[in-house]
Amino acid sequence: MATQTLTKWVIDPMHSEVHFKVKHLVISTVTGSFKSFEGTLETENDDFTDANIEFSLDVNSIDTNQDQRDGHLKSAEFFDSEQFPKISFKSTSFKKTDGDEYELKGDLTIKGITNPVTLSVEHGGSAADFYGNTKAGFDITGKIHRKQFGLTWDGVTEAGSVVLGDEIKLAISLQLTKQA
After folding, report:
1. Bridge pairing between strands 37-43 and 7-11
2. Which of 134, 159, 110, 123 is nearest to 9 (CA)?
3. Are 133 and 171 in contact (CB under 8 A)?
4. How large is the average pLDDT for residues 106-111?
5. What sign for the dihedral angle of Cα 114, 116, 120, 125?
6. Of 168, 171, 152, nearest to 23 (Cα)?
7. Is 70 helix (H, G, I), strand (E, B) or coil?
8. Which residues contact 83 (CB under 8 A, 6 or more apart)?
9. pTM of the predicted structure, to 2 decimals
10. What's the CA gap between 75 and 40, in Å, rounded?
């Protein structure tokens, strides 16, 4: 009986980005990113189907290009980075849907609250870099509802406008390095 070889891939943080967008005052969008994160993908298949994916990011690395807002997001009113310094994701399913398109399902944990999420993934391909390392690229998109993860802060302006939308759009570009 033949055994499959497990291939491990590790995120290359120098060529990867984690971005999010949220509506502000219902009329515009604020974009932010997380600068510090790590993750792995383990697979038995050349096309990555059924891969096991784990990912975490450092809440204190949040950057919305505005220090005061970043401080508020790290506070107990939002992410409470002192008590919950990491956001984590663990896949439950990674299935090819069409060509280079995949559906990624998994458990996302924010502020100690775990909920299932479904994300869309586009595999950009694989290539060797200048040093002979095999790289694979993926673009991941999806939406989550912040209140399901305990991010319940709400503000209303004097005119009655909601300050912050509930839906968070995710846009993640990852380059992974195949491990020897």
Report:
1. antiparallel
2. 134
3. no
4. 97
5. positive
6. 168
7. helix
8. 76, 111
9. 0.90
10. 29
